[in-house]
Design goal:
mainly beta; 14 strands; 275 residues
């Protein structure tokens, strides 16, 4: 039976998501009743950086799915607002985040959305196969608009454990420091490791967005995938890692392309009738 979520609400503080992840991993490793899988989800909305602060920082242990939403947090009389939401799903490997902050008046706004999906995989190799190459992929699709310099947008997969050779992290930083992220992000982060039979690996896919102005919309989907040679299998501590197919969600821009195609078809039909 999954343990109930441990929820903590913090005010007037920007909690470090890496600290929360470290707490999660320590609890999973040291507490006998704790699970070594779950989802860390953190969403913060600070419309002016000082007042009207709403922060949701949730550590979920033993959960296959969770979601959170700060709602629209507004500051008066400045009219600034901020919002952050997202979700994580161990069964499908999907992660979704959204962060938005407006500017105006004095002071600054801040919005942050972080998803970390955590599970432990154990690989089984068929007889006669000493090692196998395993590929980890993270398909990332999203859009950004009006993002001010200083934003952070990153995605990746961290690996921890024994019985494998290769990198322990595959990641990409789309914005950091003074860089502004591209308007459209549609890519796959991919890396390979070599495992032996019985290799046990804690897999931590993550998606994070921090910004002071603009919109980062990764609510379409970021999805984790595995590629393995024939005959190689794995079990997960959760019992449900990647056990379901991700939902079919239109990619960024797909709806606009569809609308454009329908418009052309309508104009062509109108032209034929008129001639």
């Amino acid at each position: 039976m999954a343990m109930p979520a441990r929820r903590t609400k913090l005010l007037n503080r920007r909690t470090n998501p890496r600290f929360l992840l470290a707490v999660f991993l320590v609890l999973g490793a040291s507490a006998p009743a704790a699970h070594g899988y779950g989802i860390l989800a953190q969403f913060q909305a600070l419309p002016n950086g000082i007042d009207s602060v709403q922060v949701n920082a949730d550590v979920f242990d033993g959960e296959l799915f969770t979601s959170g939403d700060t709602g629209l947090v507004q500051s008066f009389p400045s009219g600034r607002s901020a919002r952050a939401f997202g979700s994580g799903n161990l069964s499908t490997g999907e992660m979704r985040i959204f962060a938005e902050a407006s500017t105006g008046g004095t002071g600054g706004s801040f919005a942050s959305a972080v998803i970390n999906v955590v599970d432990t995989l154990t690989f089984q190799l068929p007889a006669g196969m000493s090692t196998a190459t395993i590929g980890f992929g993270l398909d990332v699709h999203g859009t950004t608009s009006g993002v001010a310099p200083g934003a952070l947008l990153e995605a990746g997969i961290d690996l921890q454990g024994q019985g494998f050779i290769g990198p322990t992290s595959f990641s990409e930083i789309f914005a950091a420091g003074g860089n502004v992220p591209p308007a459209l992000i549609d890519t796959q982060i991919f890396g390979e490791i070599v495992v032996s039979d019985g290799a046990s690996i804690r897999v931590v896919p993550s998606l994070r967005a921090d910004l002071t102005a603009g919109t980062i919309d990764f609510s379409n989907t970021a999805a984790v995938s595995l590629t393995m040679p024939g005959g190689v299998t794995f079990t997960s501590e959760s019992g449900g890692f990647l056990s379901q197919s991700p939902a079919v969600v239109p990619e960024p821009g797909t709806n606009l392309l569809l609308l454009g195609g329908l418009s052309i078809a309508w104009l062509f039909g109108l032209h034929k009738r008129n001639t």
